[in-house]
Amino acid sequence: MINKQIQMFGSPATSMWALLWLAAFAINVNSSERKEFQFKHHNNEEMYDAILQVRDKCPNITSLYRLSEDSIEGRPLLVLVFSVHPTEHKPMDPEFKYIANMHGNEVLGRELLLKLADYFCEEYKAGNEDIVKLITKTRIHLMPSMNPDGWQRSTDDGGSNDLIGRDNAEGVDLNRNFPDLDRIVFDNEAYYKDINNHLMQMVDHLSQPVQPETKAVMQMIMSIPFVASANLHGGDLVANYPYDASRYGNEQGEYATSPDDDTFKWLALSYANYHADMANPNRMPCRGGDTNFGKEGGITNGAKWYSIRGGMQDFNYLSSNDFEITLELGCDKYTKESELEKEWNRNKNAIINLIWQSHIGIKGIIKDAATLKPIVNAFIKVVNVTNGILSPILHDVTSVQDGDYYRLLTNGDYHVTASMDGYLSSTKLVTVENKFHSEAKILNFDLQPIIIPSTYSKKRKRLAYSNTITGDKLHVF
């Protein structure tokens, strides 16, 4: 009996292969023997073992869940959570996620997340003040591999081919497989429609079938109110930010600005500046003819570099409240095993510092002023008024299940408006000053309900898609 080893989203059919390895590792992780972390290429079974070992070493600050779909070849997609409330969302604590190994032959991120999990566990137990504070104030989700099938193909081939193992077992590039929300937002701009967020309900067709791995991650994105995130890749050394798709069809060289361009630059620099070499202007580019990203601060707009459609980064931003960037962690896709420890040391400060950025800007709770009950799906609109110049940021976020909201912002002065159908809007002026590794400024709203005579009342529909936690329960396997 596995005895509550893993929690699950949904209730997918479980393959016999998955049952066998889960049973095996349930026995292994309950043994008295504890393994020290090794810098190596963990195969898929060893990866699951390493995750379960951490969960077992630090049960009070971790939980483990399995996504709603397995990989094509039946391998479970697991996520390890760190928090002092690891099994549930807590109001005012932002949610952050890292997803690695989306391209199966890009392996460094996978090993970094396994090491990060072990590091969090050990440092929390040792009383590291910064790590204790981070885990106390944040709910952190680590997914070491989105494409374990591709990892297996790449590894079986020797890890030397830039293409073998990149795709999933069906030959699909998962970072081109998400619904193309860039198409929708660019069409909205062309027709002067001010709709730039929570766009899933506007999807009218898909360019290709959604793969199980993509579907599983989509459900996670739409079920958990993530605030910030990153996906970990390899092949260059740069922090990439939205938009990834060009507005006008240019394959590269076109800077595709999002409404939150300043905030995305902040996030990208929060990684690049804390990495040992990413922002170094004197470093060489990965290959002859490549852009020297070091001379650009170690960051790039995605479409300016090269345009893609159906990417996970832009999907997060346009479908939910989540601000995601893409991290290219090194010139080699399949990092040599002898380099893994060095790469951990080069990335450690950056990978932790980026999680802290889920605390920049403002956060608060929106309530009904009459009943003091939380208001779900209220809109938060922001206008930058720094230096007396009014600059609307045309990308709203919404309040989630307990009326809590999180709005990432850079330093400056802002008019912030909370609005909801049936209530009077409320606007407040706030000055944001993001201090090092500190929580966001709290800005709460109590909205006054509008009293409408019953003879004139009508039900009104709102053009939005909620990013609140769904009613789906986490089932114990």
Automatic annotation (TrEMBL):
What's the source species for this entry?
Answer: Aphis glycines (Soybean aphid)
What this protein is called in its record is Peptidase M14 domain-containing protein
Kindly list the cofactors needed. Zn(2+)
User: What positions does UniProt annotate as the active site of this protein?
Assistant: E328
Q: What would be one Gene Ontology cellular-component term for the protein?
A: extracellular space
Q: Which GO terms describe its molecular function?
A: metallocarboxypeptidase activity; zinc ion binding
Cross-referenced InterPro entries? CarboxyPept-like_regulatory, CARBOXYPEPT_ZN_1, CARBOXYPEPT_ZN_2, Peptidase_M14, Peptidase_M14_domain
Q: Tell me the compartments it is located in.
A: Secreted
Keyword Zinc among UniProt keywords: yes
Q: Provide the leader sequence positions.
A: 1-31
Determine the domain of life of the protein's source.
Eukaryota
* UniProt similarity note: Belongs to the peptidase M14 family.
Q: Does the keyword Protease apply?
A: yes
Q: Which GO terms describe its biological process?
A: peptide metabolic process; protein processing
Q: Which Pfam families match?
A: CarboxypepD_reg (PF13620), Peptidase_M14 (PF00246)
